[in-house]
Amino acid sequence: STSIMLFTRDLRVRDNPALAAACRAERVVPVFVFDDALLGGPFAAPNRVRFLLESLADLRESLRELGGDLVVRRGDPVTEVARLAERTRAAALFLADERSAYAARRLDGLRGLGLEVSAHPGITVVPPGDLTPAGGDHYRVFTPYWRAWDAAGRRPVAKTPRKVALPSGLRPGALPDMAGLVSGTPSRDLADGGERAGRRRMETWLRESAADYDRVHDDLAADRTSRLSPYLKFGCVSPLEAAKAGPEGFRRQLAWRDFHHQVAAAFPELARADYRPRGRRWNRDEDALAAWRAGMTGIPIVDAGMRQLRAEGFMHNRARLITASFLTRNLDIDWRRGLRHFNDWLLDGDVADNAGNWQWVAGTGNNTRPAQVMKPLRQALRFDRGGDYVRRYVPELAEIEGSRVHRPWSLPADRRRALGYPPPIVDPE
Ligand code: FAD
Fold it and tell me: Which residue intervals make up region (Disordered) (predicted)?
């Protein structure tokens, strides 16, 4: 018998329940389809496309080591799977269970092909919908979700297939170039995509930083969080394996990820709906928005975060909180415009996580409690005490020592002018 394994955002061979199940057939067709509908939309940011291509090259290498290959196609996934099924006479289709509105439509289409379709867990630790509060379809508040999440049983880790046998005569197809998929240039300092790079990062982090996580995860300059988010976004690392290995504070962060995914599954409006009190309008100051995007607000902690984003396709969580709060609370600009900019650059950019967090910071969500307003200067002095984070990302300020780097506006006027750094666009204190 022949099965098709459709990879989506589960680009790994370890702990991949769909792949493990597909490989029980005599022959398996592992395939990834570059989906034209996704390539045409906001998903196709150069940073993520590059990470995706590297992840696919790595996956292909792993499948080749197992005797198989990765079949690559482009177009509509339902049409491409139908073609492959016809060519190979496959009877069954395996894929990761994903609950976004888009994935649900795709699954409906695939179910219409007459194959036996099975969707397996693996994208989150706990699948959306598995945990529900009494009298509701999903959790709206994090703390009770976290308690239920941490107490819930876990599925066993899936076995890595020992062999992947392709049907004969199948043309695997070349991986496309960046240029054929997306326009624009990726950031200069991106993490490498792929399961190997992800596992290396996880192992190093577990060895060197995990034990200190609770103490250092908010320290901007220390930069000692796991940086696993892009690997989790593309499924290069299994969230379940990460949750089993990491300490409690880290597990709690993974539970936030699952939390947003279960909100988004039950409430797809999460990414759009804005629950501001009626009659309150967002500020449409285009210059302020442009300054925020460029990291030129004149508030060093905000600019450092925004420049890290462009340089690395990544931003430390504390800096995401500070920059998002600054945009929505200090500048009073619509969080959806901030979300779009994040999504243009983040390697880990994900509808559920991005929107869930923006809603939380802006205090606009339907489901979560509004967060408090963060004063940027106070945050800077607390989480970048020595100023190293700012000096790392804002070279104009690299010569200012200690925490004075957080207040360039208080320098003598001639020194201030010589910096070539803008004055603050709003009162920073
Ligand atoms: P660690 O501290 O090592 O945490 C481990 C993992 O837990 C992360 O890799 C991530 O998968 C998960 N996690 C941690 N914090 C959160 C959180 N608040 N919400 C959801 N998952 C979390 N994360 C994304 O993955 N994609 C996004 O698009 C995204 N957008 C964000 C937008 C804003 C405005 C804010 C405030 C946060 C956003 N986050 C997003 C959450 C968080 O900032 C990143 O997951 C985290 O910084 C990734 O770094 P890390 O892997 O080193 O995290």
Answer: 176-199
Closest CA to 270 of 100, 41, 56, 110: 100
The model carries a pTM of 0.97
Smallest CA separation from ligand 1 atom 52, residue: 227
Do the beta carbons of residue 194 and residue 59 sit within 8 Å? yes
Top mutation candidate among 206, 257, 340, 368 for ligand 1, by most atoms within 8 Å of CB: 257
pLDDT in tens, 291-325: 999 999 999 999 999 999 999 999 999 999 999 99
- Which atom from ligand 1 is nearest to the alpha carbon of 217? 2
Helix 286-294 to helix 300-312 angle (10° resolution) is 60
Could you tell me the CATH number of the domain that includes residue 32? 3.40.50.620
Closest among 281, 291, 275 to 323, alpha carbons compared? 291
Tally of CB atoms within 10 A around 44: 17
| Domain with 52 in it | 2-123
ipTM: 0.99
Listed in sequence order, the residues at least 6 apart from 321 whose beta carbon sits closer than 8 Å to its beta carbon are 361, 374, 379
pLDDT surpasses 90 at 270: no
Q: What is the per-residue pLDDT for 428?
A: 82
Nearest atom of ligand 1 to the alpha carbon of 229: 9
Q: Which of 251, 348, 359 to mutate to test the pocket of ligand 1 (most atoms within 8 A of CB)?
A: 348
Same domain, 205 and 309: no
